[in-house]
Amino acid sequence: MAKPVRKGFSKALFEENDGQAKRAARDLAATFGLDEIVENTQRYGIDLLGMSEGNVALGIEVEIKHGWKEGAFPFNTIHLPERKEKFCKEKMPVIFCILSKDLKQAAIFGKKTVLQAEKVEVPNRFVRSGEMFFDIPISEVRFVEIGSPFVKNLFKEIKETAE
What we know:
Blueprint: H1 11-26, H2 29-32, E1 36-39, E2 48-52, E3 55-65, E4 77-81, E5 94-100, E6 105-110, H3 111-116, E7 118-121, E8 132-137, E9 142-145, H4 152-162
Parallel strand pairs: 3-5
Antiparallel strand pairs: 1-2, 2-3, 4-8, 5-6, 6-9, 7-8
């Protein structure tokens, strides 16, 4: 089996996106009924930890989708890089939080959704061919505004797909 093709780490992209994505996602604590969302101290671990009553309730992996500038999500599917599959092996519930470029919207789905998705090759500006992505149908994704108040049914639904 051929070794997967993956985009190499870019310190410039990391510095441009990581901090602002994590700050925006922390504003989802109320949406999910969490006490707070904190940064994970493990360097290569999942980005954020959702805390409830002093305990880790779930892991949150965040990413800014630059093609989603603002408003409604403009695509039929979300392409999640295959390299993020490692977070689906966490024992805790895990959600993926894809943010619009303006950081006002989030697309949320759990690790079960990822593991049930088809993998597709997606040529992109960083890797011309061979990089694989999970092809997440938007029908399996929940969209929220950053900072929106607690939404009980949304959190229950997302948490069920995250375990």
